[in-house]
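Structure ticket #2291
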Amino acid sequence: MRAQYRAEGLDETELAPSPYDQFARWFKEAAASGLHEPNAMVVSTADAAGRPSSRTVLLKRFDEHGFVFFTNYTSRKGRDLAENAHVSLLFPWHPLARQVIVSGTAERIGRDETAAYFRTRPHGSQLGAWASDQSAPVASRAELEEAYGSLAARYPEGEQVPAPPHWGGIRVTAQSVEFWQGRENRLHDRLRYDRDGDGWSVVRLAP
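Resolution: structure written out below.
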């Protein structure tokens, strides 16, 4: 199965000064294209022994300080990041023949910031954060739904649900960000920003 990618490419002269600004450009274009969940990203972590794991997570915000997502801190990725802060993010925008690959380090955001975001979540999602012991074995679907039902009875619609202490945000600070644009004949454009002191340098990679 093969697809011929677009002829339009990505040139160094077109890049924004920082990878966060360049990401904002591409993210806006991905959202405008009608792409389903352009904020979906593959988060890859590794434990202390270097054993990797990956999963799809939704990006919730980004700025010049990094990329933020939310998770249960006791989940596999949460435990991995507690042992090994190095992380990779991949945005697979296949319909646009584009990828963005972020390599960096992760840290937890403040509880005030987590609580503020938690209050914006739908009521059901707030309850779900309490009901699910993410990544842990569960005996059955019925057990999960029973836990959710108990929480729904305790916190009915309209009742404020506190943010779980084991749940919160992770900010990934980039050390490098690669912008990949598919081109004809597999001669893709790959431009990578690398942290260089207080600024960024850009290198072109062979496809």
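Closing remark: The longest helix spans residues 19-32.
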